[in-house]
Amino acid sequence: MKRMLFSICLAVAALSGLAETKEKVAYGDFEQWITRYIHESSVIGGKTRTLYEIGPTTTIDGNKAYSNMGGSPWATSNVYAKVAGVVKGSNAVFPDKRTASNKCVKLSTIMEKVKALGIINMDVLVSGSIYLGKMVEPVSSTKNPYSKLDMSTPFTKRPKYLEYDYKVLIPKNTPMIYSSGFGKKKTLTGRQNACEVFVLLQRRWEDAEGNIYAKRVGTGRERFTQSSSGWVNGHRLRIYYGNIVGQPYYKDYMNLVSSSRPYYARNSKGKLVPVQEVGWDSPVAKPTHIIMMFSAGCGTAYEGTIGQTLWVDNVSFVY
pTM, whole model, 2 decimals? Predict the structure, then answer.
């Protein structure tokens, strides 16, 4: 009898070791939102624009640079911009009602139009995105948009999956375009845009000059090229560790971050610098930082398909 009880205890212990645990990402249920009112310059119409941020429920009225509030790890592509003294607000990330009592986040691809007779005439394509990090405001130019995103989020865990609910709308027979506000809009024929979700775990270090380098520890990345029939609940994005090139599940877009389009982080001197991803790390390495993003587009900045939309809810890590 004692031997039987001992065997049962061992079996229970083994099963317990295999049990999954979930860790909700703070504010990842998207029930709370910060509402901002940005008063645009009179030269472009003087409208008051409403911008949304993910964080504790509150209202901010006035042209103030936003910094994450209430412990929220999330930043958005919504921005307060001040270019050559002209104030403009842009919003492509919205709170949305999933049910009468449940909110989610809606990421849209839109065209921001800035017009003032004889002075300004710009159309800028914006794909709504949310990510772990901070937006550096006020944005002063449309050049190198990734340099305005501070991806300095520490993270030392090794999750198996990113779990979330989602819904996708990919417009049919709608061309993908490029429009940065400078020059004419371009139709990108033969190109397929997609909504995208990714988790990149990195082990970073800094040299004496303040340059930041990283090796890729873990990779989870997927793209959606077709509309869903409704909400997909409990979807899991697998995070793979080590060098995944050549594996059956590997896609080109899962490769190391290109040096021509790096993400940025603050170094020990407080300066935003590109994170130079220089190789794949050991499959058992411990990460130091995370880059995580949900986006209504997957092209370079200012590329996308108008109307393309991604809804997200209930974001968690699974261990």
Answer: 0.90
